[in-house]
Amino acid sequence: MEWFTQFLHLFFIASILIRSKAIPNQIPKHHVVYMGNSASNNIHINGQMPDSTHLELLSSIIPRRESERIALIHHYSHAFSGFSAMLTESEASALSGHDGVVSVFPDPILHLHTTRSWDFLASDLGMKERDTPKYQQHLSSDIIIGVIDTGIWPESPSFRDEGIGHIPSKWKGVCMEGHDFKKSNCNRKLIGARYYNNQFASSGKKTLTTEVRGSPRDSVGHGTHTASTAAGARVENASYYGLAQGTARGGSPYARIAAYKACSEEGCSGATILKAIDDAIRDGVDIISISIGLSSLFQSDFLDDPIAIGAFHAEQMGVMVVCSAGNDGPDPYTVVNTAPWIFTVAASNIDRNFQSTIVLGNGKTFQGSGINFASLTHSKMYPLVFGEKVAAKFVPASEARNCYPGSLDYNKTAGNIVVCVNEYPTVSRKIKKLVVQDARAIGIILIDEDSKDVSFDADVFPFSQVGNLEGHQILEYINSTKNSTATILPTSEVSRYRPSPIVASFSSRGPSGRTENILKPDVMAPGTGILAAMIPPSNEPGSVPIGKKPSMFAIKSGTSMACPHVTGAAAFIKSIHRKWSPSMIKSALMTTATTYNNMRKPVTNTSNYISNPHEMGVGEINPLRALNPGLVFETDMKDYIRFLCYYGYSPKNIRSMSKTNIKCPRNSSEDLISNINYPSISIKTLKREQKAKVITRTVTNVGLLNATYNAKVLSPEGLVVNVTPNKLVFSEGVGRISYKVSFYGKEAHAGYNFGTITWLGGRHYVHTVFAVNVK
């Protein structure tokens, strides 16, 4: 019977293992159930699908004994249909096969990705300020920008409504009250504010983790900063404790703002972002700005991406969606928010920098980067030590030189300036600063090549960051004497910094991991060292310089800051060209972008190499030039539907999404995506042995009725590019013309080849950037 006992024992262990794997699958988790275009469903009340329809669907798959889970967390019913609820994996799987359901996916957690920036765009890059007054009188204040973010701080002077007229009649939104937010906090500038308490659903429970008391008020600052960058009112003498002083303003200072608080410091619920997009469209916004995205490491399918889903339906309703590209650069394949109906923005610097000077005891000085309001001076020097020389007992030297938490001996560190390196990228600059500060040091010098173009804000604690070359010299000095000393001076501002723009080191790069047949990012805009509105600082010691009042502005960097620059520019163009569709505005900003810096040389990256379109898209936006682009590429819903066909989605799902009876072409393949009428061209694969690949584009004349354009091609050596016809003649009866571009790569270099096709017509030059991967 011993074999039987062993069998029972093995069976018991196996059953435990099976249960341990099965049980987690049966724990209810927050899921999104996406059901396509709301108009594609038959049952509506006042244009919206009632909750009861979705509740009935839920009740069909949730057991009666768990009836408390038959509840909607979010209900989507305006621009698109669906809901979110607590579901087990098996229930989610069952729902995904239900007729009328396009996709079911777990609620993803997404992440949050000025005085000088607009003047920099206006003057240094070819937009002369003397040209702007004639447009000012035409700027209308009925353009509404919806900002989906962490909320808003309504008392900021950037949201004053002086000189702005009555709220547009098209506005259907609300100003939600909270425990610290009243309806009176809204005005003719900040016309709407919403918040969503149920930002995160917990696993295994029907309840949600919510803020104790909800409010649209921003407690992080991210939403306030982005909203004011896009559409903040003019504020004279704005600065961050004296740095970046000037007049702060948004790109469209007369536009209205509607704030949708869908995020907290921990991140953003995808289901809540979907709800915010649905609400914004219903409320009547013209443009939605989203400085948020999924992680580039875990990019999902388009139909599992809440921003891609919401933006698709926004485009259907004529609402532009502008998104940040992500902060995971400089590695390739890190760009996010890459659906063709999303306007994807990379980040650059402007002609202003912040430096914190390091003075060594031997008289040498180094211009490091960083923002600090320390009280150190030239007159007093402090002992200078390398982190590994002040390591705590039993701590590896490698951890101490990286200023790893718990690695420093406080007795050895106190009173010194500590030099740290960055061999552990997981330990941020903020953590290193806190480690050194907590060890009672005088200051920190960080040796790190990465992100030295992005000034870290260390408040009043002395901080400066240098690259490897300068760092090597500092360490050599420490090793050359027993009594090495140094001081770190308060930050000073460098104006008219050259070269600029430069692609920011953190800005996520293409090509897109989802499809390389669409060029992403689309454009680049200022995202480094941007001064904009901020929530008042905390009362923590060191957060406000001694003798200063709390600042209502802050300097931030990220593609989060670049995104609202494009939003503001798009709102500016929309205020002049009311009938232009989102794709026309997008095309205008793309085909007029600049690829040179303020030294009239090609834009570079932080490694001093000439930047390519996978880093900066088609170039830096030039809003005034975009007002008169000459020609535009209209990418309509037919193009986006063809994209979904070529990408491989089922005709059934596409019909649900688009409310059309579209039949996908029989020969649909991802290679055909290059043919949708996009303002740039990207080809994932061009084989050397194949015949020329032909791409079709159609342009619409938005300039003079009678106009002639001639094609000029700039292509790399070996790649043969021909345009047919190479002359476009527009007249009163001819407003749209198609042309073909052929690419032949037999003699081309392997890998991506970049170039441009420029249509020259009088004062207009219409750039189309191409990226062709030769194999």
TrEMBL record:
Q: A Pfam family matched by this chain, by name?
A: Peptidase_S8
Q: Which SUPFAM superfamilies match?
A: Subtilisin-like (SSF52743)
Q: Could you cite one Gene Ontology molecular function of this protein?
A: serine-type endopeptidase activity
Q: What is its main location?
A: secreted
Q: Domain Peptidase S8/S53 spans what residues?
A: 141-596
Question: Looking at the UniProt record for this protein, which Gene Ontology cellular component terms does it annotate, in alphabetical order?
Answer: apoplast
**Gene3D superfamilies reported for this sequence:** 2.60.40.2310, 3.50.30.30, Peptidase S8 propeptide/proteinase inhibitor I9 (3.30.70.80), Peptidase S8/S53 domain (3.40.50.200)
What does UniProt give as the signal peptide span?
A: 1-22
Secreted recorded as keyword: yes
* Residue intervals of the Subtilisin-like protease fibronectin type-III domain: 675-772
Q: Which UniProt keywords apply?
A: Apoplast, Glycoprotein, Hydrolase, Protease, Secreted, Serine protease, Signal
UniProt-annotated location(s)? Secreted, Extracellular space, Apoplast
Keyword Glycosyltransferase set for record: no
Where's the active site on this chain? 149, 222, 560
> Where does the Inhibitor I9 domain lie?
31-113
Q: What does this protein do?
A: Required for arbuscular mycorrhiza (AM) development during AM symbiosis with AM fungi (e.g. Glomeromycota intraradices).
State the family it belongs to.
Answer: Belongs to the peptidase S8 family.
Write down what this protein is called: Uncharacterized protein
> Which species is listed as the source?
Lupinus angustifolius (Narrow-leaved blue lupine)
